[in-house]
Fold each of these.
Amino acid sequence: MNTRLLFSGNDAFGEAAIISGCQFYAGYPITPQNELTQYMSRRMLEEGRIFIQSESELASINMVFGASLSGVRAMTSSSSPGISLMQEGISYLAGCELPAVVVNVMRGGPGLGNIDPSQADYFQSTRGGGHGDYRTPVLAPESVPEIFKLTPVAFELADKYRTPVILLGDGMLGQMMEPVDRDLLNIKNKVYPKPWALTGCLKRKPQSIKSLYLATGALEELNLRLQERYRRIEEQEVRFQSQISSKDSLLIVAYGTMARIAKGVIKALKSENINVGLFRPVTLWPFPSKELKNSASGIKNILVLEMSSPQMHEDVRLALPSGFKIDFLGRMGGIIPSEDEIIEKIKKMLKSLRRVK
Amino acid sequence: MKVLYKRPYALNDIQTHYCSGCGHGIIHRLVAEVIDELQIREKTIAIAPVGCAVLAYDYWNFDTTEAAHGRPLAVATAIKRVQPDKIVFTYQGDGDLAAIGTNETIHAACRGENLTVVFVNNGVYGMTGGQMAPTTVLSQKTTTTLSGRERSIHGYPLPLLEMLKVLEGVFYLERRSLFSPSEVKKSKQALLTAFQNQIENKGFSMVEILSPCPTYSKMKPVENLKWIEKEVIKTYPLGRVK
């Protein structure tokens, strides 16, 4: 019997982390991700695992640092302003080559902003976010079921590459409830040995986990090792979804909630015989540049949709050579572009194209 | 022939980077002696701070990590929760523990985490060039209080142990110094108690040690110790606080 369970996105991040083997969670309240912290406060204790409501996001991420160096899977979550506070800790995790999963349920910014859904932390998530030369893999689910698919991937990437990994959602995904097939909850976790963990030096030499390298050239050695790892991630861990047909006259590039809305737009336009394709990056870093270039090659007209200023737009421009017409529609400050305004934009684009022809 | 004095096994046989007359070398050694005596070296995990003692992990012969500035007690909290059978301690300076990390310090103490904290109070930021610390005493000259710390401009020195005393979660607080051989012995005894408390699951224990920084006190090592004995203890009285 294939039963279905109803989950909000925030609860789903929590349950998916638990079935991914997350042994430690620390969190600090911030809207719109509070349900996740609340969910973990109950479920982690039920599972005999560790939950700490910390005194700040700084403490949360540093607790995750301590749990991770102990060799267990660890997660924290927050929303945009709280994620800004965590950047120091994420940089240290990267510098110490420690795995961790950080959920960001984005809200409008800058500053305190508001508590509405937003995608304004794209640059912060995909460019490292904190100080120093580092990157973090970023996974952007578009639905509650996909949270169950990508959370185990996040933990696995973190362990495999010894890096913090960002799960990037927004207030809409966090608050929205959707049915989830029970099968999705059957996750088999790959276990990665962690001989580097600090567990006391019984029967081995003492070990250190640190990110300070004072000797000339020593830090660059770490940097080169990290860069080599990032190249491997770029080669091997790209994820995307493309929904393209040869009849498409335009290609939408969108991720997360925005891609979900784009799917509605595409369906509505189909009924008017207007064919539009969708390219949805699932990993925002590594960005699926080659895959986008291949997918877009027969179309040439691109519309980037974001719940922010043009941010992913830059990655799309970097991925596509000249000759593509790349347009943008986005709303900021927690405003979600409506299907109608996107449809109007697409019709206007197609009309001007016909005029050019 | 009988060996009366030797390097503790928990202390590596290498030269430290500390300035002459600095207290860190003595305190590193006292910690190592205590760890040897309690036979806990193989299950000890230490968290070094940002500051002069950041390189402590090179000097100790057990597992070590280094936390971001001010965050050792958040890191330690998680290590101890995940590995309750291990002995986890932080080694922190005054800037780390009582300025940038005050929040983490107070909340780890308030939660009553079963941790040991070695708090080295030398009254200045040593690594960055001798600026005023939260613990700099009134009228003490530093590179950011050139005419001496003045209450109306720089505020009062922070009495951290006295602040922590009121917290239910705190089990043991003691302030000691290094200005005489007998004080060094008392410091060691306090450290022994603080580690023993953790072994016995008694809860949060902190030992503050008033330590010399001759380089930035602009004093000779012996003068610096005398100054601590005569002046600093007026602001930071020695003894058991809780």
Amino acid sequence: MIHIDLIDQPIDVAAALQTVEDDGAGAINTFIGTVRNKSTGRPVVRLEYEAYDSMALHQLRKVAEQAQQQWPMLRKVTVIHRKGTLNIGDVAVVVAVSTPHRAESFAACQYIIDTLKQVVTIWKKEFYEDGDVWVAAHP
Amino acid sequence: MNLKIALFGIAREIVGQSTLELAAPEGQSVQELLARLHQEYPALTRLSSLAVAVNNEYAADDAPLHERDEIALIPPVSGG
């Protein structure tokens, strides 16, 4: 079962974890991405996430489906991404998976967050005291 | 045909608007559209990458575009 969301309100991490609970699972693995106060040594004040919503939701679902194909024992997958303005320490993304045994839960969780970063249409702008930058935009 | 292109992130800032409407020859390819946009907005050529999405999927360079397609310019993504 796959649960995908893209929201402009704080992510309820406990509620997200509950969505992957499963009686057949002996492992729940979670990745929580949070807003760091520095980027390449430069103090960050806040972030803004912009999304192409329809494509981001579609691509997130595809990434979760690919994980299910690669690890057919996956019971449940939840991916929730935040958009809008985020402050230091805020949760930007939660990936949670449940599997019968732990090894696949680590692998699937890592695959999902790594692939999300490559393909999902979400853009992050970092704001500093003296300027702002679209992350990864330029070589 | 008329194409409507959605712009996001730095591509939106470079072009200065969130959608672009262009008249294009029937069957214009993704590559042709990109070449045209690169010429009109040279700052786009300095990005690490610039993809085109058609109907919520990344499109191949030689894919033909159609008037009813939902087209978007996709600068380097940075979610997570």
